[in-house]
Amino acid sequence: MVDQADITRYLENWQDEIESAFLYRALAKAEPQSALAEVYRRLAITEETHAQFWEEKLRQVGRRPPRRRIGWRTRFLALLAKRFGPQFVLPTINAMEQVDSHSYDAQADTHHTQLPVQERSHARLLEAITSSSSTGLEGGTLAQIEGRHRTAGGNTLRAAVLGANDGLLSNLSLVMGVAGANINGRSILVTGFAGLLAGACSMALGEWLSVQSSRELYERQIRIEKREVEEVPDEEEEELALIYEAKGLPAAQARTLAARMMSNQTTALDTLTREELGIDPEELGGSAWAAGATSFFLFSLGAIVPVVPFTFLSGAIAVGVSLLLSGLALFLIGAGITLLTGRSVLYSGTRQVLFGLAAAGITFGVGRLLGVSLSG
After folding, report:
1. Do 18 and 92 fall into the same domain?
2. 277: Cα within 13 Å, side-chain hemisphere
3. What is the DSSP letter of 277?
4. Looking at the domain assignment, is residue 235 inside a domain?
5. Nearest to 328 by CA among 172, 192, 198
6. Are 83 and 174 part of one and the same domain?
7. Which of 68, 250, 285, 367 is deepest in the core (most CB within 10 A)?
8. What gap in Å lies between CA 326 and CA 354, rounded to an integer?
9. How far apart are CA 204 and CA 289, in angstroms?
């Protein structure tokens, strides 16, 4: 017996599918590249097949499918694609697909159909198209030739600069706050090293958890992909062919290449993992331990700077030297940021010093007020 909740779900699924089909047809019409337009048309056909599946479900329970109406949001996205091109709306559509990619996994009606696999395939395919469209093959190639865009290693450089900056700013503020309270030099030194270790451990643990979680997610995605290669190789071959078409290969060549890749399951899994998921199965995003250790080192490198003067000086002199060394380090960090932003070294360095010393001044003032209050 089918209850009203099931009927409502059938109608919602049906509406989602007809709107997806409408949107893919709009993308196909607006896409200037014929190969990619054909990919969108084939996606629309699949979504239309899904809609017919739910129409049949409604008929089986004695409900006639309602008249087709496309929502304003879908129509607006289609209008934007027509006016500005598919690339303008692809990130939004891709986000919608990623949310809906597992919507059929828990629905018993679809467990013995290809709907869940196809929806996940669509999401991965659209992710690949969106990534390719956002980077731009020609622009990326020209950038590498000209050497103006430092994309290679850019994330590593950014992490190094910001990691050291976090350590320096947080520990400088902590040390100045304690110094403002007129606590003796030994206590400031202990506080500085405690702040260094606490902050560095926290950063390292956070980075380890982030990378390890990503690795576990990648491993799960690869297991799912492996099961699909074994259970539905025809669907995976079709998906791989669509990806190659989206990258610009002619349809016949894309199908031939996909068939050759799928002839060996090990090769097929490796290829699909790289092409669909964007994952290097040998790296899986890198080592979590290496990422944690690097984060610990970079944070400590910045955090040690304001503490060093208190190891051999005391009083106002130690505070002054700490501010001087920290100011110099802040300027160097600001100069390092210009490698990412392209701004003036003097501008970025001075801005970094001003912001850093302002934070230190605020915590020093708070420390002074608390110190006076406690002593009184």
Report:
1. yes
2. 25
3. S
4. yes
5. 172
6. no
7. 367
8. 11
9. 9
Is residue 333 domain-shared with residue 263, that is, in the same domain?
no
Count of positions (residues) in the chain: 376
Task: Tell me, yes or no, whether 87 and 36 share the same domain.
Answer: yes
Residues 100 and 118 sit within 8 Å (Cβ to Cβ): no
Give the domain extent around 222: 215-275
pTM for the predicted model, two decimal places: 0.55
Long-range contacts of 267-275 (CB under 8 A, 24+ apart): 268/229, 268/233, 268/236, 268/240, 269/222, 269/225, 269/226, 269/229, 271/240, 272/225, 272/229, 272/236, 272/239, 272/240, 273/221, 273/222, 273/225, 275/128, 275/240, 275/243, 275/244
Q: How many CB atoms lie within 10 A of CB 215?
A: 17
- 195 phi/psi in degrees, rounded to 5: -65, -40
Q: Are 117 and 239 in contact (CB under 8 A)?
A: no
If one counts the domains in the chain, the total is 3
Does 342 lie in the same domain as 200?
yes
Render pLDDT for 49-105 as a digit per residue (tens, 0 to 9).
999 999 999 998 888 889 999 988 888 889 988 988 888 888 888 878 887 778 888
Tokens read off for 155: 């994330």
